[in-house]
Specification:
The chain has 586 residues and is α/β, with parallel strands linked by helices. Among the domains are: 14-163 and 560-586, 3-Layer(aba) Sandwich (Rossmann fold), CATH 3.40.50; 346-443, Luciferase, domain 3, CATH 2.30.38; 447-551, ANL, C-terminal domain (GMP Synthetase, Chain A, domain 3, 2-Layer Sandwich). The protein is 33% helix and 24% strand. It contains 18 helices and 29 strands. Helix 2 (44-60) packs across helix 3, helix 4 runs parallel beside helix 6 (135-141) and helix 6 packs parallel to helix 18 (562-585).
């Protein structure tokens, strides 16, 4: 099947750089909310002025147009300074995630060093604690100009011409949920096409307010929230992701306080709020202003959305606001959008028939539709032979449109595998029914049982709500065994306050999977909280979990805290000193 979006309107700005400069005199701006709900507001004019000073500082450090600048900063004014400062200097920003797990700082240093090196960044920009622990990664990656504190980047802004539509605008790393993160090269024209398409879907007006807790180093938070607000321009309220995880009510309270109308999140966030936010947390709050509660970035859970709608209806939340969407970083962001107010019920299918015969049959697994293509985008579902799959037939999802990536940065082989004839192979499986795309799962995550290909969330969803297990912290894997072929293994983290022992939890999980799917796991293993590997955006890395399971290296993170931070900072400083001595002795 092929689905085609409406024509793409002409963009209102040639680039986001132009949009930022045009927003200078607009009364709105960005409000940052901290963990104690203290707020700091920067009008767009001040955002521009701060970025111009950083652009001058970057030029003073030797950055020239076309250079890549890695940005490792938490959500805050400094991120905007560095990101927009890079653009105003003619450079290409490469946003990378700051350390989020103190117990895995060694692992973080290694992965960050790989990403800095792969991006070809000449300079790494950070500040504060992040910079103090980043030394090992910087030294290992060896950027030509080393690293800099954003607070020290100050100078007269260079006179740079407007970037061309075909110029490289951004390098954003894919989430790495199935493989190591890859550097996605996004051109200015792709960003303007994407935001123009989003603008057509949402139609923002003078009363609209964007509120987001999503990371600014990934497409949904960066393009969908920050750059969308610049383009419009309109008010934006930002909560740091680590603060949302600590106090999920912050997100909802910010929406109420600022009368937020637009706010995106993945399904886990809606489930997390429904479980963790207490009525006392929202005393006097109203969610009635929220008109687009977008759900994307991971498989959409109809159950999670319905629980959220029911839980917060007393606070004025309108379930018609819940809008499932689909996208990926290789398409800059969004591929499909659902219609606001569409029913939340998904298609109930038989997972065995879908897995074995690639056809729809009535059953017990819900797959929520994620809508039709956004403006300018085409979507095809192709079968194993490469032909268009018929209505209700499972196949690979391919995407074509002006917001599709230029390719993986300096990796023609990977680009050639992903983009053929202008079509991006997303690596996802899905089908079209009733004119809407339905996403079944990642092809690389499939679990093969008795010759049938099952999406792992068929098994993972069976554990939802099981007492003693952490919500959203389980993976289903297909594991080869000599003489037995591939069998199902389930890895699940216990809740921190679990009263049952691991044997009882494993037995309960096993029974839940059998009851839901009819398939008996070969093994169920209960893990300590935090053991399962995740991407920088919080997605579970199933293939990495499989690698660690098979190699016997699946272990909880080391205990974090101030001591771990101090040791990492000491190692970081030592790495810098050694690098300086080597340079002096050369």
């Amino acid at each position: 099947m092929r689905l085609t979006g409406p024509p793409l309107p002409a963009p209102r700005h040639p680039t986001l750089v132009h949009a930022l400069r045009s927003a200078r005199g607009h009364r709105s701006g960005v409000t940052f909310v901290d963990l104690a709900e203290r707020e700091r507001r920067l009008p767009w004019g001040e955002v521009l002025a701060r970025a111009e000073r950083v652009a001058g500082g970057l030029a003073g450090r030797g950055i020239v147009p076309g250079d890549r600048v890695a940005i490792v900063l938490r959500t805050g004014p400094e991120f905007l300074d560095a990101f927009f400062g890079a653009w105003l200097s003619g450079a290409v920003p490469v946003p990378l995630y700051p350390p989020v797990r103190l117990g895995r700082l060694d692992e973080y240093a290694r992965s960050t060093a790989r990403m800095i090196a792969r991006s070809g960044a000449r300079l790494v920009v950070s500040t504060g604690t992040v910079r103090r622990v980043l030394g090992e990664a910087v030294v290992a990656a060896g950027p030509e100009l080393g690293d800099a504190d954003v607070a020290d980047l100050d100078g007269e802004p260079p006179a740079q011409p407007e970037p061309a539509a075909g110029d490289l605008a951004l390098v954003q790393f894919s989430s790495g949920s199935t493989v190591d993160p890859k550097p996605v090269a996004i051109r200015h024209a792709a960003i303007t096409a994407q935001i123009t398409a989003l603008e057509r879907e949402v139609d923002p007006g003078d009363r609209d307010v964007m509120v987001s807790w999503l990371p600014l180093y990934h497409d949904m938070g960066l393009v969908g929230a920050l750059l969308g607000a610049v383009w419009w321009p309109g008010p934006l309220t930002l909560v740091a992701p680590e603060h949302f995880l600590a106090r999920p009510a912050l997100w909802l309270r910010a929406i109420s306080r600022h009368r937020g109308t637009l706010s995106p999140a993945p399904s886990f966030a809606y489930a997390y709020c429904a479980e963790r936010v207490r009525d006392a947390d929202l005393a006097g709050c109203s969610l009635a202003s929220w008109r687009f509660a977008l759900d994307g970035a991971e498989p959409v859970s109809g159950g999670a959305l319905r629980r959220f709608a029911a839980r917060f209806a007393p606070h004025g939340f309108d379930p018609a606001s819940l809008v499932p969407v689909y996208g990926l970083s290789e398409a800059t962001l969004a591929v499909t959008f659902s219609r606001r107010g569409a029913p939340l019920e998904g298609r109930l299918v038989d997972p065995v028939a879908l897995a074995r015969d690639a056809r729809l049959a009535p059953g017990g697994r819900e797959i929520v539709p994620v809508g039709r293509p956004v403006a300018g985008v085409e979507v095809e579902v192709r079968d194993a032979s490469g032909d268009l799959a018929g209505e209700g037939r499972l196949g690979r999802i391919l995407v074509r449109g002006p917001s599709v990536m230029a390719g993986y940065l300096e990796d023609p082989e990977a680009t050639g595998r992903a983009v053929v004839g202008g079509w991006l192979d997303t690596g996802d499986l899905g089908f079209v029914a009733d004119g809407a795309l339905h996403v079944h799962g990642r092809s690389k995550d499939l679990v093969i049982v008795r010759g049938a290909n099952h999406a792992p969330d068929e098994f993972e969803d069976a554990l939802a709500g099981l007492p003693g297990l952490r919500p959203g912290c389980a993976v289903a894997l297909g594991v080869e065994s000599d003489g037995e072929g591939e069998g199902l293994v389930v890895l699940a983290e216990r809740a921190r306050d679990a009263a049952q022992d691991d044997a009882i939890l494993a037995a309960a999980a096993r029974e839940a999977v059998i009851e839901r799917t009819g398939i008996a796991p070969r093994e169920v293993r209960i893990l300590a909280p935090g053991t399962l590997p995740r991407t920088s955006s919080g997605k579970l890395r199933r293939r990495e979990a499989l690698r660690r399971f098979e190699s016997g290296t699946l272990a909880p993170p080391a205990r974090g805290g101030l001591l771990a931070l101090a040791l990492a900072a000491a190692r970081s400083e030592l790495a810098r000193l050694r690098a300086v001595r080597r340079k002096e002795g050369a």
